[in-house]
Amino acid sequence: xxxxxxxSSATLPLGxxxxxxxxxxxxxxxxxxxxxxxxVSIDASSVVDxxxxxxxxLACFVDxxxxxxxxxxxxxxxxxxxxxxxxxxxxNALGLPDAAARTE
Length: 104
What we know:
Number of helices: 5
Number of strands: 6
Helix content: 40-55%
Structural class: alpha/beta
CATH topology: Transcription Regulator spoIIAA
Largest sheet: 4 strands, mixed
Order of helices and strands: EEEHEEHEHHH
Low-confidence stretches: 100-104
Strand order of the largest sheet: 1-2-4-6
CATH superfamily: STAS domain
Radius of gyration: 13 Å
CATH architecture: 2-Layer Sandwich
Mean pLDDT: 87
Oligomer: single chain
Distance between the termini: 36 Å
């Protein structure tokens, strides 16, 4: 998994699967970004498969980065990510675009 780096920001592409058996490379990238808090743009536009482990990892990463003074933006959010984050109630915690507007 490669990232596009700038001095104070990075893009984290999530690939097509955020399921338990395929999380190790994404987790390794998240750990690397969490050690040097900055602005991370998460690209979830290609995610087709996602399970509760993938959602939990995303939520933990967003919370950890924000808690360390970093910021998270979303470059793209697939329908799978949006649907399952809505179903589980994690859309606002993840800071997904338009999450607040959809819950009003």
